[in-house]
Design a protein that fits this description.
Length: about 375
């Protein structure tokens, strides 16, 4: 397999003000690249709080607020639970390889599930989604309480799970998951409620490249970045990226503006960054304010060398398939080809029997 086909990035679903989210990302990968065969990452409000992989074989805390509030019984239970899921993932990858007529090569099976709670309205939302080799596989439609096959071969799984599985999973997502979300938010209320303003800079590789407005170091993760021309919102020639995590628990986001020097020197272009930590930040595009990006570094601050190793991409609301965290230290989703299409944010499980909901974590069934 060509290593250049992959990339490490994670992006987290943005919840609105007053909302909280609990998400879990599972990724199984066949042997052939230097990453664990199974990875689990848990996030609360976009912050990683637990982690497990097939090398360490233990669920571990990633933040003090969970470490200080849960004892050995919790960690032992979580470890045993996820070890069972890991075993199931290995079976499922084999099943899917047969189903898709893949006899060799590196392949991935991924699952994302979670719930959200709006503190203001009391509204709750749950989702689960599966992916195979970086593409949507099957998802749960919570409104109809039924599975949706996203590829023809997935009709097999859809029929196997039937109504009982969907009912059980929905019950977990809008019940048990919400209960644990409330508990976790209470544990981490001081950290999760903090507001850190973004640092804004203008970056450009060379005069013919797009100008990048980059906001970084902010928390929480909800931020809006836009470009204006002479005081008017600009939408054409603007590409807004996804929100990505930094290693310290803060976030970053960028918005590219495609404009030639002769045009922006004759007009006033302004990058506007809006974040709940304070008033909007206005950065006017001038020659003095542009920082040149080094040849070996991309706009995310990742060296070119790192881009040559296998990587993962977890999408945002509409994206969501994960693998392992190396560069950004969270989750990875395999991007196998340049034409990769991000998945819709919905729902995932294992492929052959109804899921159970014992304990605090949604259990997996076979494909």
């Amino acid at each position: 397999m060509k290593a250049a086909a992959l990339l490490f990035i994670i992006s987290v679903h943005l919840v609105s003000g007053g909302s909280h989210s609990l998400q879990y990302f599972y990724t199984g990968v066949t042997r052939g690249i230097n990453v664990p065969e199974f990875t689990d990452v848990g996030l609360v409000d976009g912050q990683q709080f637990v982690y497990y992989d097939s090398n360490i074989r233990q669920m571990i805390p990633k933040v003090d607020w969970i470490k200080n509030n849960e004892g050995p019984e919790y960690w032992n239970s979580e470890t045993l639970n996820i070890q069972g899921t890991e075993a199931g993932f290995k079976v499922d990858i084999g099943t899917l390889m047969q189903r898709f007529n893949h006899s060799s090569g590196v392949h991935t099976f991924q699952r994302m599930f979670g719930c959200e709670l709006d503190d203001v309205t009391g509204a709750i939302y749950g989702y689960e989604q599966f992916g195979y080799d970086g593409a949507d596989f099957i998802s749960l439609d919570l409104k109809s309480t039924s599975y949706v096959a996203l590829v023809p071969l997935d009709e097999i799984t859809k029929h196997r799970w039937g109504g009982a599985c969907a009912d059980q999973v929905k019950s977990y997502l809008i019940g048990t998951c919400i209960d644990w979300l409330k508990k976790y938010v209470d544990y981490g209320k001081i950290i999760l409620a903090r507001k850190v303003p973004p640092q804004v800079s203008l970056l450009q590789r060379d005069p013919s490249s797009p100008v990048v407005c980059r906001a970084t170091g902010f928390y929480p993760d909800k931020v809006k970045i836009s470009w204006q021309k002479d005081g008017q919102d600009l939408h054409e020639d603007v590409d807004v990226g996804e929100t990505l995590p930094n290693h310290d628990g803060t976030f970053q986001k960028r918005a590219e503006l495609k404009v030639t020097p002769d045009v922006w020197k004759k007009n006033q272009f302004t990058c506007v960054v809006e974040h709940k930590s304070g008033d909007p930040i206005h950065m006017i595009l001038t020659e003095k304010k542009i920082r040149t990006i080094s040849p070996g570094i991309n706009v995310l601050g990742i060296s070119a060398a790192c881009n040559n190793v296998p990587v993962i991409v977890a999408g945002l609301v509409v994206a969501a398939l994960v693998l392992i965290a190396v560069v950004v230290g969270v989750v990875m989703v395999v991007k196998r080809r340049s034409g990769y299409k991000k998945a819709r944010r919905e729902y995932y499980t294992q492929l052959s029997a109804p899921a159970s909901q014992s304990g605090l974590r949604l259990q997996q069934t076979e494909i």
